[in-house]
Amino acid sequence: MQIVLISGLSGSGKSIALNVLEDAGYYVVDNLPATLLPQLVSHLRGVGYGRVAVAVDMRSGVSIAALPVQVEALRGIVDDLRFIFLEARDDALIARFSETRRRHPLAEEGVSLEEAIRREREALDEIAELGHRIDTSDLHPNTLRAWVKDFIHVEASEGLTLMFQSFGFKYGIPLDADLVFDVRCLPNPYYDLNLRPLTGKDQLVIDFLKRIPEVGRMAEDIRSFVANWLPAYVRDNRSYLTVAIGCTGGQHRSVYLAEWLAGKFEDKVRVIVRHRSAARRAVDQTASRQ
């Protein structure tokens, strides 16, 4: 039986994630009190459901505090348990609530939206470390849908999943990053007019960067650091480790290095590659043509 748990901050995209899972054939349960999770799983397994997605968040009140214990218990009785935690920056959440005019679950009388978001973030701080974190601050809904699909399609097995994520510092450091490497000191293909519209996945950019000794040294230093410390993260029972590589715009250098690093580790652990700013750029270009 496969269980996918969804949690996170209000307004971070949990409904989108649940819809993706429902469309993929999962039996979906929204807003379940954490204390009822074992009973739900037992019942659904007894009646033959093989894939179940459950959203547990602050709407269930104080029972959310029981989630870490329930997750640990479930890991011993189900074949495949996955946890997605969605989050976003305060400014992004405030903008979403303002656009939809929805009420934050913790925005009681006399409590501002900013204070409600702060309280929820503090209450969920421990839970955020239970699974795979996704910062949806600058993500288009279609990008989030694609990332959730990638998450559920990764082959299930014991151990840690290593994610290399490129990003642009001008958009901010991703909240879901565990390790951050700044590669803005490297020569920038952006200043070559022939390379400017390309990305770090294009062969011309790859050839440009491979010719630069500093790029090779930076790549090897990051590879060595991750390789040396990866066993410690495994011993810490981490399910996911996100290594973020940042350049100015997240288009050339960080994309190239994230892809290069993924290739160095793909035969050792499960690896996922994501390009945060490149996905944003594609959405922006599509919008500009409309």
Residues in helices, as a percent range: 40-55%
- What's the β-strand tally? 9
What is the percentage of strand-forming residues?
Answer: 15-25%
Radius of gyration: 20 Å
Low-pLDDT segments, ≥5 res? 283-290
Major sheet characteristics: 5 strands, parallel
Shape: globular
**H and E string:** EHEHEHEHHHEHEEHHEHEH
Class per helix and strand makeup: alpha/beta
Q: How many H/I helices? A: 11
Spatial sequence of strands, sheet with the most strands: 2-3-1-4-5
Query: What is the residue-averaged pLDDT?
Result: 89
Core attributes:
about 290 residues, alpha/beta, 5-stranded parallel sheet, 4-stranded parallel sheet, globular, disordered C terminus
Description of the molecule:
GTP binds at residues 57-60. InterPro entries: P-loop_NTPase, RapZ-like, RapZ-like_N, RapZ_C. ATP binds at residues 8-15. With 290 residues, the chain is an alpha/beta fold. The chain is 43% helix and 18% strand. The protein has helices spanning 14-23, 37-46, 67-75, 90-100, 113-123, 125-128, 141-153, 203-210, 213-235, 253-265, 276-289, and strands spanning 2-8, 27-29, 51-55, 80-87, 132-135, 161-168, 179-182, 240-247, 270-275. Helix 2 links the parallel strand 2 and strand 3 (51-55). Helix 1 packs across helix 7 (141-153) and helix 9 crosses helix 10 (253-265). The N and C termini lie far apart (44 Å). Mean pLDDT is 89; it is low at 283-290.
